[in-house]
Request: fold
Amino acid sequence: MKARKIGELTVSAVGMGCMAFSHGYGQIPPEGYSIEAIQNAYQHGCTFFDTAEIYSPNLSGTGHNERIVGKALRDVRQGVVLATKLFLDRSEVRKDGSVYDAVRRHLEASMERLQTDIVDLYYLHRTGGVSVEEVAEAMGLLIEDGLIHGWGLSQVDVGVIERAQRVTPLTAIQNIYSMVERDVEKAVIPYCLEHEIGVVPFSPIASGLLSGKITTETKFERNDDVRNWVPQLSKANIAGNQPIIDLLKQYAEKKQATPAQISLAWMLHKYPNVVPIPGSKNKERIIENLNASLVELTDEEFRSLEAALNQCKVYGHRGFTR
Reply:
């Protein structure tokens, strides 16, 4: 697989979001299946794996997903880039004595679960409880300590990014981005391009919508399935977004690819600093997503696809700020 740079890190052009093995898409697979799926992705050329301390069934625990990722990749640790995330509350800072001590406590727990002595990319999962400048300072110290290689923020706009960047240069921004969630194109991606910051889109296939496999008759699982509330996946909005799916199918047929692969190839062609991390709990879908890196749109194909996409109305919107 081709490689890309996010900050100073070199990663596969398509990474792997690992959340679905623990949360968000209904019944989780057996641990052995999940480990094998992650290892298959590595053997297929994926070197960039994303997790978070909060990813556990129903978000009711800590570290379930990190443990799976750690077990799956411990024997190839030097060949992969590991990204994880923390939540931070002001009460923790008061208890631990400083932002640095609180962040380091979270980090050390994640490193133990991931079976590693360094995290390549450490994100603040959401901003809010602690100023981003204080977190940026703590992250800078952790880089100096040799405990992380780089750091990032998730679901943030340019104002927050600028404030953090002034304190400790960022490696990556992880925001929602897909053909039906394009807000980051206005300012976030241009800023990141200018400052050599990677953009790591989560939900780049819009929770499966852009795969073309979801219809108005699709029934999602009742327990722990985010697709029940994703705006684009209401019955009315699935129907409304059908022209986008039809467009993807048209290009998929032309390129001997799948709609999901076209949606990923589109963003890879558009921006050199974008590395999507599609997630799935299905082994076959994971490999399909990784193979999007092999689908190359010509400049003319991209321009035509972009022009047609710009004519489509999007039904449903999540956004990337709170």
The chain is about 40% helix and 10% strand.
